TrEMBL record:
This protein's UniProt keywords: Iron, Metal-binding, Oxidoreductase
UniProt keyword Cell membrane, yes or no: no
Family assignment from sequence similarity: Belongs to the iron/ascorbate-dependent oxidoreductase family.
Matching Pfam families: 2OG-FeII_Oxy, DIOX_N
Official protein name in the record: Fe2OG dioxygenase domain-containing protein
Organism: Postia placenta MAD-698-R-SB12
Positions of the Fe2OG dioxygenase domain: 214-329
Lineage: superkingdom: Eukaryota
PANTHER family per UniProt: FI07970P-RELATED (PTHR10209:SF881), OXIDOREDUCTASE, 2OG-FE II OXYGENASE FAMILY PROTEIN (PTHR10209)
TM segment ranges: none
Any one Gene Ontology molecular-function term assigned to this protein's record: oxidoreductase activity
C-alpha cells in the first residue's frame, strides 16, 4: 500500500468550509509546491502553542500547521510536546539495558502471535515492506531481513494478551518505565488527535471515544552495529521501506540518524535527521484511510548512517536506538471515511482497526 495521490482526495467536502478555507490557503498550490525535493521538507511545529492556547483561534493555527504537515509530507517534527527530555533519556536507558540481556533471556520472551503483538523480535524475524504477498515477503525476509531487534509492548491490562516482561531482577525498573512511557505517549497522542480533529473541521473531541482504549504498541528498537558491506547488499536496510499501520507513530530517535522519508512525487528518499528535543510524528495507514487520503501515510525506511572506518578494508555503521509508539484507534473502531473528508466518494471500504492491523502484522513476521 504505497503512497496514494493527494489530487484524488476529497478535501473539505460538505459543511461549506471549502470557500472559507480556500481564502486562507490553497491546498492545490501547496501540493504543487512540495513536488520538488528541495521543497519537500518535514515541518517543525511548536506544540506548546496548542497545549497552552488561550483561545480557540490560537489552537486552530497550530492545528492547521499540523494538518498541513500531514497532508503534504505525512511527517512532522513536534517540538515542546510536553514530554521531558529526562523521561525520554531514561526510557532509552532502560531500553538499552533490556537489549543487553543475554539472548537466552530475550528469547524466552519471543513474539508469538500478531493478535498479541507483544514480545521480543530477534534480528531477521521481521521484514517490513509494502508487499501484501506472503510468498514475496518470505523471499525478501530470506534474502534481506531487517537488521534490527525489537521489543513490543501493548496495554498491560488487556484481557486476552499479556505483555512479556523480563524478570524484575534481570531488568530493574524496565516494566515500570515502559508502562509510564506508554501512558505518556497515549496522552500526547490524544492531544495531537484533537489538533487533527480541529484541522479537519471536526469537533475537537471527535476522536476521543474512538482512540481511548489504548490499543497501541510501544516498540523499542535496537539496530546493532553492522559491517557496512552487509548493508550494501541489494534490498538490505536496517528497516525496509514501509508505511505504518495505525493513526500516528511517535518516533523518538537517538543522535545517530538513518531515517529516510519518501517524497511521493519524485520517489526520492530524503533524510529525516534527529533534531534534539523533538519527536518525529507520522500518519499511518488507518489515519490515511479514515481521512480518505487527505492525510498521507508516507513511506519511510532506516538506512545506514555514515560508517566509521575500522580498518583499511572495513567500516562499521554505528549502533542505533529508537523508540516508536504506534498509536491505534480502538480495536473495534470502524474506520470509515470521515464526514469532512468524503469529497466525491469514499475511496476505501470500512475496516476495523483489528482487521487491518492483524492482517498487516501477520504478513511481515516469520
Ligand atoms: O527506527 C526508526 O527510526 C523507524 C522505525 C520504523 O519506521 C518502524 O519501526 O516502523
Ligand atoms: Fe515505520
Amino acid at each position: 500500500m504505497a503512497f496514494r495521490n493527494i489530487s484524488n482526495c476529497g478535501r473539505w467536502g460538505r459543511l461549506g468550509h471549502a470557500l472559507k478555507r480556500s481564502q486562507t490557503r490553497s491546498l492545490a498550490t501547496l501540493a504543487e509546491d512540495v513536488k520538488s525535493d528541495a521543497a519537500f521538507s518535514i515541518p517543525l511545529i511548536d506544540f506548546s502553542k496548542f497545549r497552552t492556547a488561550a483561545s480557540q483561534a490560537e489552537k486552530r493555527r497550530t492545528a492547521d500547521d499540523i494538518v498541513r504537515g500531514f497532508k503534504e509530507v505525512g511527517f512532522i517534527y513536534l517540538n515542546k510536546h510536553g514530554i521531558s527530555d529526562d523521561t525520554v533519556q531514561h526510557t532509552f536507558k532502560k531500553s538499552a539495558e533490556f537489549f543487553r540481556l543475554p539472548m537466552e533471556a530475550k528469547s524466552q520472551l519471543a513474539w508469538e502471535d500478531p493478535r498479541a503483538n507483544r514480545g521480543y523480535v530477534q534480528i531477521g524475524r521481521e521484514r517490513v515492506t509494502q508487499s501484501a504477498d506472503a510468498n514475496e515477503i518470505a523471499a525478501l525476509r530470506a534474502k534481506a531481513p531487517d537488521f534490527k531487534e525489537s521489543m513490543e509492548i501493548g496495554r498491560d491490562w488487556d484481557a486476552t494478551w499479556k505483555n512479556r516482561w523480563p524478570q524484575e531482577g534481570a531488568a530493574p525498573g524496565f516494566r515500570e518505565t515502559m508502562l509510564q512511557f506508554f501512558q505518556t505517549c497515549h496522552d500526547l497522542h490524544t492531544l495531537v488527535m484533537r489538533a487533527i480533529a480541529i484541522g479537519l473541521d471536526l469537533d475537537e473531541m471527535f476522536f476521543e471515544d474512538k482512540i481511548h482504549e489504548q490499543y497501541h504498541n510501544l516498540r523499542l528498537l535496537n539496530y546493532p552495529p553492522i559491517r557496512r558491506q552487509l548493508l550494501q547488499q541489494e534490498g538490505q536496510a536496517r528497516a525496509g521501506a514501509h508505511s505504518d499501520y495505525g493513526t500516528l507513530t511517535l518516533l523518538f530517535q537517538d543522535s545517530v540518524g538513518g531515517l529516510e522519508v519518501q517524497n511521493p512525487h519524485t520517489k526520492q528518499f530524503q533524510p529525516a535527521p534527529p533534531i534534539p528535543g523533538t519527536i518525529v510524528i507520522n500518519a499511518g495507514d488507518l489515519l490515511a484511510r479514515w481521512s480518505n487520503d487527505v492525510l498521507r501515510s508516507t513511506l519511510h525506511r532506516v538506512v545506514a548512517p555514515p560508517a566509521k572506518q575500522v580498518s583499511a578494508t572495513e567500516s562499521i555503521t554505528p549502533a542505533r536506538q529508537s523508540i516508536a509508539f504506534f498509536c491505534n484507534p480502538n480495536a473495534g473502531a470502524h474506520i470509515a471515511c470521515l464526514p469532512t473528508c468524503a469529497g466525491k466518494e469514499a475511496k476505501y471500504a470500512p475496516v476495523t482497526t483489528e482487521e487491518y492491523i492483524v492482517g498487516r502484522l501477520s504478513a511481515t513476521y516469520s
